[in-house]
Amino acid sequence: MTEAATNLAHPQAASAGLFSRIAAGSVFPVVSILAGLVIVWYVFAVILNGPFQRDLDRRAGETPGFVEFVGKTWSQPKPTLPAPHQVAANFFENTFLRKVTSNRSLVYHAWVTLSSTLLGFAFGTALGILIAVGIVHFTSLDRSLMPWIIASQTIPILAIAPMVVVVFAAIGITGVIPKALISTYLSFFPVAVGMVKGLRSPELMHLDLMHTYNASASQTFWKLRVPASVPFLFASMKVAVAASLVGAIVAELPTGAVAGIGAKLLSGSYYSQTIDIWAALVAGSVVAILLVTVVGIVGNIVERSMGGRPA
Amino acid sequence: MSGLKLSWQAGLALLFCVAAAIMLPLAGAAAPYSGGTTALIFVLVAGAALASALPVPNLISAAILFVGAHGAAWLLIAGITGNEGTARTSFFLLIIAGWLLAWRCVTVLSVLRPVDRLANTLLRLLIPVIFGAWILILWEAITRGAGIPFVLLPPPSAIGVRLANSLPILWADVNQTIFKSVVAGYILGCGAGFATAILADRVPFLRRGLLPIGNMVSALPIIGVAPILVMWFGFDWPSKAAVVVVMTFFPMLVNTVAGLAASGHMERDLMRTYASSYWQTLFKLRLPAAAPFIFNALKINSTLAMIGAIVAEFFGTPVVGMGFRISTEVGRMNIDMVWAEIAVAALAGSVFYGAIALVERAVTFWHPSVRGG
User: Where found, per UniProt (chain B) (predicted)?
Assistant: First the structure.
């Protein structure tokens, strides 16, 4: 429908040549914008790393030509803005060439973060579903709890992260649980809100039909409300899993930088290892995309096996 | 039909009351409760539980439950203050009984459907307030009653005292973090996102390219750019504002682009028959139609902006700011100060969100969700 609307608004696009037909898809625009970003990145690497390089050259008494100068700004060991190929090389080296158990391996750090993300995500999803079921079934819970759930997200909950970690460490609980709790806090909200919407999504007609079948409340719940809420559940789980990764990364900041993507970011910022920071960022993004994709795929499989048709 | 209104909460509360009476005294050692106070607590709880079954109007039984539950909780907490850690099982049983009565009170109130609009609004506020108050009451009673060490979880009253005593420090932090970093970053980030969305709307090529990228970015842990930006822009507030700009840009972009596509075909055709220009259509039809989406982004961004600014301060900051205060006071084990800072952050976040919600109601008064249709 959007496509048709665009064609109506710009009639020339429909009849133009090959270029605009390629441009009408979304792959070509995405790729060209990404390519544009990479070029801008290289240009900024020259601009931002330039002053320091000029300083170095002046002290060494060198006067490099333009091409040589640009090449040097792209290969500093601790650049202000590392060039994309430096980040890519660092990422590749620390992901594929190191042993997985090595402290410098990004796979190892990503795994540490991933484990607390997944635990927190599981807790958060369970808690969110539980709250949603309670809210749908008890009016008093709906009216007393719902405003607080919304309010709980207007407060910057990540601010509590350092305290939760330190306090749990004080009573002897360290490791994955405190980090997972922060992920839980961030991920229960989207699931709770989505599931309340989902469990209430059956229309009055359907509920009336269940009524005419003399279905009990639990029968209505399991045979009508739960199946109706599945698409909502997976949509909100996608948001929740991304939030829970953010929670896990931030929770790693105050632990004194032991392991994990957050710790990698912090130690990188302590020692000005900019390339390491960028590589850790790339690793975090890869994990995020993988998680969201996996949740999406599982959602598709579940919906198809339940007889749902893609809308 | 006896007309009695029986409920499981009141029944259970009575049962706990009896159990508490068997397991007296309320607290050991110093015996802070006089015989009269103990008797009064029992009368309040048991009386409210029994009276709630009387066939009186709902409003009256709710009032009785309210007074019974909160009066008993007040007496119990007032007694245990200064005698931390001495509470016996009986104390906790009575607190739970009080909580059950408050639950019953909320249930009774939830059923009420006042005709008067003002009363309805008050009721909508009162129910969550009772719930929130009981979280604080249980927190206070458990930390004081069980004598939980202060450095683990201070009771809310101690946090309140700390908050009141360190207002100048808290104000300086709020000034640094919110009025400098958050506001500057929020305005710049939302403005840039909005402008880019308009540009993307003008150039379909950009829209088709930016929308998938924007959707993907929303899943990424953007907060990770904080150390990089702190390195670039220094320790003071501009670096925090930059983090906020990066965090708020994409939600605004994606939501505005979606909102600009929200106006109906018929309406757009009508604008065409009026021979209105692109900008006329934009300002008179499409932007108003996009307003709910834009406000949605503004609301999401209000939370993201607070998180961005506070977390960015963990990576380096001058010696003032909410994130700085939280991370240093945790290190010094001044947990009550941390909680005070969190309370301030929560208040600021809620006010920020509430202000945007109010503006939204005023601007999108025509929308079904605001009209209540």
Answer: Cell membrane
**Closest by Cα among B355, B290, B344 to B321:** B344
Q: Verify whether the Cβ–Cβ distance B224 to A272 is below 8 Å.
A: no
Any CB–CB contact under 8 A between A5 and chain B?
Answer: yes
CATH number of the domain within which B358 lies = 1.10.3720.10
* Calpha distance A171→B291 (Å, rounded): 49
Beta carbons of B301 and B293 less than 8 angstroms apart:
no
Q: Using CA atoms, how far apart are residues A103 and A122, in angstroms rounded to an integer?
A: 27
Q: Are residues B236 and B129 in the same domain?
A: no
Architecture of domain A106-305: Orthogonal Bundle (1.10)
Chain B contact present for A12, CB below 8 A: no
Domain ranges of chain A: 2-81, 106-305
Using CA atoms, how far apart are residues B188 and B243, in angstroms rounded to an integer? Answer: 11
d(CA B73, CA B99): 9
- Calpha distance A260→A248 (Å, rounded): 9
Does the interface ipTM go beyond 0.90? no
User: Token match 């101690």: residue?
Assistant: B158
Domain with B294 in it? 164-371
Query: Which has the closest alpha carbon to B191: B133, B129, B252?
Result: B252
* Residues B299 and B251 sit within 8 Å (Cβ to Cβ): no
Do residues B149 and A172 make contact, with C-beta atoms less than 8 angstroms apart?
A: no
In a domain, B159, yes or no: no
Look at residue B98 and tell me if it is in a domain. Answer: yes
Rounded distance between C-alpha atoms, residue A71 and residue B58, angstroms? 80
Give the gap in angstroms from C-alpha B233 to the nearest C-alpha of chain A. Answer: 11
B157 in a domain, yes or no? Answer: no
Q: Amino acid identity of B28?
A: G
| B350/A155 touch (CB, cutoff 8 Å), yes or no | yes
Does residue A240 contact residue A193 with C-beta atoms inside 8 Å? no
Q: Is the pTM of this model over 0.80?
A: no
Beta bridge partners of B87: B27
Contacts of B99 in chain A (CB under 8 A): none
Of A23, A41, A253, the closest CA to residue B331 belongs to A253
Residues B102, B15 share a domain: yes
**Nearest residue to A23 via CA among B198, B253, B204, B215:** B204
Note whether B205 contacts A26, CB cutoff 8 Å: no
Percent composition of chain B: helix, strand, coil (DSSP 3-state, to 5): 80, 0, 20
Please list the pLDDT of chain A residue by residue as tens digits (311 residues).
344 444 444 444 444 566 666 556 777 888 888 888 888 888 888 888 777 777 877 887 777 777 777 777 777 777 778 888 888 888 888 777 777 667 777 888 888 888 889 999 999 999 999 999 888 888 777 777 777 777 777 666 666 777 777 777 777 777 778 888 888 888 888 898 888 888 888 888 888 998 899 988 888 888 888 888 888 888 888 888 988 888 888 888 765 557 788 888 878 777 777 888 888 888 888 888 889 889 989 988 888 888 766 54
